[in-house]
Amino acid sequence: MAIEFVCPACRGTLRVEDDAAGQTVRCGECMAVLRVPQAEPAVSVVEPVAPPAELVVESDEPAPRPRRRTRRPARPKGRSVGFWVLTVLLTTTLFTLLVCGGVMLAGRPQWRIHESAAGGFRVELPAAPRPDIAQMTRAHLPPGVRIEGTVLLLKLEQYAVVYRDIEPATRQTLTDDDILAEAVKGIKDELPTARLVRDDRVTVSGFPGREVVMEVPGQETGVWRVVVAETRLYVVLDSFVVTDPQLLARRRPR
Question: 221 φ, ψ to 5°?
């Protein structure tokens, strides 16, 4: 029969063999020196015995080591590893969806009407006009030449209107056909490796123009529409319409 008793110092429970009754033992938790009670009470509270100067062992046999009850270690506070793995996976998935969705939207045309007060025209654009269109298209514009338009980033497509006022001296000395021919020649000179596919005469908002289609090696086919609106020269898109009332008032019948 084992003797079980409580350490009065640390309140830990000790268990020894019944033949250790009356012997002195040490608590395994707090190392206090205790005397084992008799086996009559199942559990008894005993007073600690002050350690003597010299410990006298009453028996030649070593004192039995009391058995200790092991305590289950407390569960650490905080999130588990599985929680953080799941969080990282969800965050990565959400970020991927946002990025992919943003790229798809960036390349999807959303046509809208662009009215230019400065240029006196109206045109359809697949995205909002960009104030940095000149930098985006890397256009080297000479003095007096302006550009308005946008770029579809995913498709790398440019939609722009380039225009300038015609100097009065040029307007008096050159005809509409002369100005158009000079403008078309300038486009061809900018693309020396391109092949001319088509060069047709067109009329835009009642003004004379030329539509030039050229194939650029390694790139898509380019379409340029050049329009002379009395005192202004435009290089425009298909949906281009002149809206400047002064230019429309001076329009001559063709």
Answer: -70, 135
